[in-house]
């Protein structure tokens, strides 16, 4: 029997994207609008809010369902505290998490509307964006790596959850993912067979 290796838990940090998302939620009181402002999907935003709540042991937002009076999402006292302390070295506690984000993944610049919404980066260049801001407003854009898990094994929820915990990010999985590798192999075989038949 092989003894299990113990390893020190990684620290979990509040990222600049988390702070930007909380700031956008404070301003809009709408998860959909806030996610649009920071250029992430609603699902990605919900994942980040759940991740913070799990790490801190309490929710950072409180939501009220819509209807005739329209729903809204507001920051809790804990959410306001996280927002005021900002990103970087804020330790949320031990447990599986993500490593401190690289500042290379956060870009600062100025929002411009024409000819299409974009952020003119302080260091030169520009990023096309999907969120709205005021003309000339200084903004920060967080670029988050995304990982897509493919193949039949990606439908195994336990495997997906384990990988997400180890990587500290949410994995993208398509319901038809088991065909991704198979279709690629079939296309490669078809091209090889066609090239052989022609040549």
Task: Summarize the helices and strands and which ones pair or pack.
Blueprint: H1 16-28, H2 31-37, H3 42-56, E1 61-64, E2 72-75, H4 77-85, E3 106-112, E4 118-121, E5 126-128, E6 138-142, E7 147-148, H5 157-167, E8 171-172, H6 178-198
Parallel strand pairs: 7-8
Antiparallel strand pairs: 1-2, 3-4, 3-6, 4-5
Query: How is the quaternary structure best described?
Result: single chain
Question: Which stretches are poorly predicted, pLDDT < 50 over at least 5 residues?
Answer: 1-12, 91-102
Strand order of the largest sheet: 5-4-3-6
Radius of gyration: 21 Å
The largest sheet is: 4 strands, antiparallel
Overall structural class, as computed from helix and strand content, comes to: alpha+beta
The secondary-structure element order is HHHEEHEEEEEHEH
Sheet-strand content, in percent, reads 15-25%
The percent of residues in helical segments reads 25-40%
Tally of DSSP helical segments: 6
CATH architecture identity of the largest domain: Orthogonal Bundle
- How many separate domains make up the residues? 2
CATH superfamily of the largest domain: Winged helix-like DNA-binding domain superfamily/Winged helix DNA-binding domain
